[in-house]
Amino acid sequence: MKLKMMKGTLVTVLLLSLLLVACQPTAPATSEPVEPEPQATLPAAEPTQPPPPASSEVIEITYMRQADNPDIELDYIKEFEAANPSIKVIVDSVPSNDTYNKLVLTTNAGNPPDVFMTFWTADAVSNDLIYSLEEFIDRSEFESRFTSAGASYAQFQGTIYAIPWRAGASVFLVNCKMFEDAGLEVPTLNWTWEDLTTLSAALTDKDAGKYGFGLVGSSTDFATEWQFWPFLLQAGGKIYENNRAAFNTPEGVKALEYLISLKPYIPEGFTSMDLNQLIDLFVSNKVAMFQDGPWFIGIIQKGNPDFDVCVAPMVVGDQPGNITGGTALGISPLSKNKEAAWKFIDYMTSDDVLGRWNAATDNVPPVVSAFENPIYAEGPMSVAAEVVKQPGVIPANQYPESTRLNTIMRTYLQAAFLGEMTPQEALEAAAAEWDEVLKNYD
């Protein structure tokens, strides 16, 4: 009975299956295309705006600048950011004399600035703190754009490590009022050591607290050795040669003895005085003149707008001699954004920016084109512009471990100024310590 029922069920299922197949639509018999059924027209979608760039697409670079510089520099940074919205510049303003130490500390910590201002390029090279820029630079263009002073200051041992920001040779900064009150004219080219002595004596009145000449003799200030080097060169001496100290010579002794001979015309206590204190005496009409970098023209005028600064060229000894220095922009080897860092440097050191910045801040520009500005044809800046072209000018700090070696030098210069050592003893002791350091770079 169950078997008959199962057979009946199977027959029923089979008949239903055949019926379903028969009801399916059959394919067309011809190969002619079938017209598609008309579709309802949908309104066109409005175009979509591209999404704003993600925050990760904006590259941040850190820039360590000298806090002493006028803030107009920050305007150029904003210009760069406006022209390069994918790059954000984080500014770290650090006092000039602290920049090298901060670079060392941040490098050791693994987070140095991408770009930094340097006036110690050779020292940075010696300690792997600065990146070679040769891959970014057309050397022939570099040499034609920049003055010899600027170009030499940005290189070490033939390699370009930084791009000049300002560069100038030392000048005499002269208190116009003190010279005028004494009926004396501001010196011009080719004045001599003898002239310097005569003028210093004539401008000194110790009872009135006035001194003819200013000098920094501290063991802690960069100006101490900076103000000695030109006299060494004028005596026919050298700073450094064949990777050894070269100043412990009769010429070096002659230069140091000459500066010591000026002590009667220098404010007492100069061996513990820093450059800022000397400038305070200068603008207070207590010091008639001192020599240092031309960047102090703008610094003094900015801080003392009612004070008149006159400028005289460097003196001449047995021969002309002077040093050039300044500031340049370099990149850290640890920077993860070297292309962006270079783009920033390239903008900040363009002829346009350098021309505007140096003119606005009374600095000597490192680019040839900037000298077309009339301010370099007359007034104090014309003297500074002329001095850098004089014979016997060499770049400062062109030796390894320059910061360490300069510290050694100023310590022994102070000892000689204090009378604790003779000039010969001081220079011999300084040279011995220099050579111990320099042996590591043979």
Task: Give me the secondary-structure category.
Answer: alpha/beta
Number of strands: 13
| Number of structural domains | 2
Report the β-strand fraction as a percent range: 5-15%
Question: What is the tally of helical segments?
Answer: 18
* CATH fold annotation of the largest domain: D-Maltodextrin-Binding Protein, domain 2
Characterize the main sheet: 6 strands, mixed
**What global shape is seen?**
globular
CATH architecture of the largest domain: 3-Layer(aba) Sandwich
What is the CATH class designation of the largest domain?
A: Alpha Beta
Unreliable stretches (pLDDT < 50, length at least 5) are 1-50
Question: Can you characterise this structure?
Answer:
It is a single chain. The protein contains 18 helices and 13 strands. The chain has two domains: 170 residues, Periplasmic binding protein-like II (D-Maltodextrin-Binding Protein, domain 2), CATH 3.40.190; 199 residues, 3-Layer(aba) Sandwich (D-Maltodextrin-Binding Protein, domain 2). 43% of the residues are buried. Strands 1, 2, 3, 6, 12 and 13 form a six-stranded mixed β-sheet that branches. The protein has a three-stranded antiparallel β-sheet with strand order 10-7-11. Helix 17 packs antiparallel against helix 18. Helix content is 41%, strand content 14%. The protein is α/β, with parallel strands linked by helices and 442 residues long.
